[in-house]
Amino acid sequence: MAELSTIARPYAEALFAAAKDDQAGLAAWSEAVSELAQISSVSDVREAMSDPRLSKDQRKKLFSGLVKSALSKGMQNFIDLLVDNDRLLLLPEIAAQFEELKNRHEGSASAEITSAFELSDAQIQELLTGLEKKFGCKLKPVVTVDKSLIGGVRVTVGDQVLDTSVQAQLARLRDTLVAA
């Protein structure tokens, strides 16, 4: 996994530099690269893009044809570059790193909040208020439900994880009892 992120990093940084200089803005580029990442994540697309019977030009046309929104010249050039370098399948990782760069530039971060139960908007806002104080930046929540947590929440911001779930507490208790 580290290898993919290492390979994807220069592409994400180059894309971010181009997006900062473009008048369309970071949000437009973020949406576009997110759409490209979603398309490249589809198993049939992945299979087609790695088919040796297709030429690079055919791959470029095929992939560009799958994009619903209009592609800017810069985004089309980016797709062409990825196909030419056989890196198109790295788009999900490139998109994730681009989003991290964008968030850092804006002074924000993505907070992955996993809860055992559905959270109301008020609960999410209350949780975000405390987390923003702890991390010192504006957080963009991505909330999911995982019933295996039993209770509580697990929050991931960057490479930091705050796990107050019942599942984690039981695991710590088990580890303590086994070690004793």
From TrEMBL:
- Has keyword Ligase? no
The listed locations are:
Cell membrane; Membrane
List the keywords (alphabetical): ATP synthesis, Cell membrane, CF(1), Hydrogen ion transport, Ion transport, Membrane, Transport
What is the membrane topology noted in the UniProt record heading this document?
Peripheral membrane protein
Note one Pfam family from the annotation. OSCP
In terms of one coarse class, where is the protein primarily found?
A: membrane
Look up keyword Cell membrane and say if it applies. Answer: yes
Q: Which InterPro entries match?
A: ATP_synth_OSCP/delta_N_sf, ATPase_OSCP/dsu
Family in the record: Belongs to the ATPase delta chain family.
UniProt xrefs under NCBIfam families: ATP_synt_delta, PRK05758.2-2
Function in brief? This protein is part of the stalk that links CF(0) to CF(1). It either transmits conformational changes from CF(0) to CF(1) or is implicated in proton conduction. F(1)F(0) ATP synthase produces ATP from ADP in the presence of a proton or sodium gradient. F-type ATPases consist of two structural domains, F(1) containing the extramembraneous catalytic core and F(0) containing the membrane proton channel, linked together by a central stalk and a peripheral stalk. During catalysis, ATP synthesis in the catalytic domain of F(1) is coupled via a rotary mechanism of the central stalk subunits to proton translocation.
Report the PANTHER family cross-referenced here: ATP SYNTHASE DELTA CHAIN
- Record's protein name: ATP synthase subunit delta
Query: What gene does this protein come from?
Result: atpH
